[in-house]
Amino acid sequence: MDVPGLDQRIAAYAATVAAGDEQKSESFVSSAALPEYRGAIAAVMARGPFRKAEPKKLALARMGSHYILKLRLFGSDQPATLQIRWRQEPPKTGEWMIASLEDLSGKRSPWSDIQHYSMERRDA
Question: What is the mean pLDDT of residues 90-111?
Fold first, then answer.
């Protein structure tokens, strides 16, 4: 998917996180998403240092005006997988910003920790 400006923002963000610069990584995050982001990224950074970040282009998907990307971080004993939702601020004309980030490390899917679904898997 060729989205103007998004590929560059993703690459810059991935390099920042791989370098372990938690404070600089916040410059990529929407102000509304910062509180949730800080909790999630602190747990991820604690598992570093990471030597490489790999944005998975195959996992880039569009949902309305948002794009969802999976990012893998390698280098520690426990690699991390992040699911990141990007959007433009202001819409359609602004800079690409992170609207949400979820640590998927160790999960079978993004829904693994939703109680309803995990109960169904146990009953099957």
Answer: 83
